[in-house]
Specification:
Blueprint lengths: L1 H8 L18 E6 L13 E9 L5 E4 L9 E4 L7 H6 L8 E6 L19 E11 L5 H7 L6 E2 L1 H14 L6 H15 L7 E2 H4 L7
Antiparallel strand pairs: 1-5, 2-3, 2-4, 2-6, 5-6, 7-8
Helix pairs in contact: 4-5
The protein binds calcium ion (2 copies).
Length: 210
């Protein structure tokens, strides 16, 4: 009982308390810059184009998208665990041009295992700048756009038409066989009640795990 009370009081000491399931340490978010004009704010399912710098607790930088790799910002989809959990939680309601500092406890980052050059149990700090926010491929807006006859469900033809349009938009030649196969694949995975249509519930990302 005392241990439980203590662990609630001093969350930084949680890691040293052994046994039992520990409550998750908290994510700290700080807005460093918010642009004056904000047309839309990021939400689950959106795609975000981000630049980010990552630091260990001692202040050493372990990654910077501005100086590593191709030095380009990267796209990621918010809310589907494409990145670490701390990002999904900490990058909501962001405007294009906004910059935040996230201090992420291991439970919301790479946990007990660590990953690559991230040692186990690392608290990580990220400075994240969002360059652009777009509707994700599985957003409510995309669903409405794909639902050509407005019956609130997507037929295979509607999905195929959408794939064709997306291919053209990105400069690829349409490929009916490929679109057909992709559509079958999508329906095999997503049409959970097997009625031959995707409902908006079946289509949009589920966020139960967050
Ligand atoms: Ca429809
Ligand atoms: Ca269905």
């Amino acid at each position: 009982m005392l241990v439980v009370a203590l662990s609630w009081l001093c969350s930084s000491a949680l890691v040293s308390v052994s046994g039992g399931k520990l409550p998750e340490a908290e994510l700290k978010t700080e807005v460093l810059h918010r642009p004056f004009i904000c047309r839309r704010k990021s939400k689950y399912g959106d795609m975000l184009l981000v630049h980010h710098d990552g630091f260990f607790a001692n202040g050493t930088m372990f990654y910077s998208s501005r100086s590593h790799g191709d030095k380009q910002p990267m796209w990621f989809t918010l809310g589907i665990r494409e990145a670490i959990k701390g990002w999904d939680l900490g990058l909501q309601d962001m405007c294009a041009g906004e910059k935040r500092r996230l201090v992420i406890p291991p439970a919301l980052a790479y946990g007990k295992e660590g990953k690559g050059k991230i040692p186990p149990e690392s608290t990580l700090t990220f400075i994240v700048e969002v360059m652009e926010v777009r509707n994700g491929p599985r957003s409510h807006e995309s669903f409405q756009e794909m639902d050509l006859n407005d019956d609130w469900r997507l037929s295979k033809d509607e999905v195929k038409a959408y794939l064709r349009k997306e291919f053209e938009r990105h400069g690829y030649p349409p490929n009916d066989t490929l679109h057909e196969n992709m559509t079958e694949d999508i329906f095999a995975k997503e049409d959970t009640n097997k009625d031959g249509f995707l409902s908006s519930r079946e289509f949009t990302y589920k966020h139960d795990e967050l």
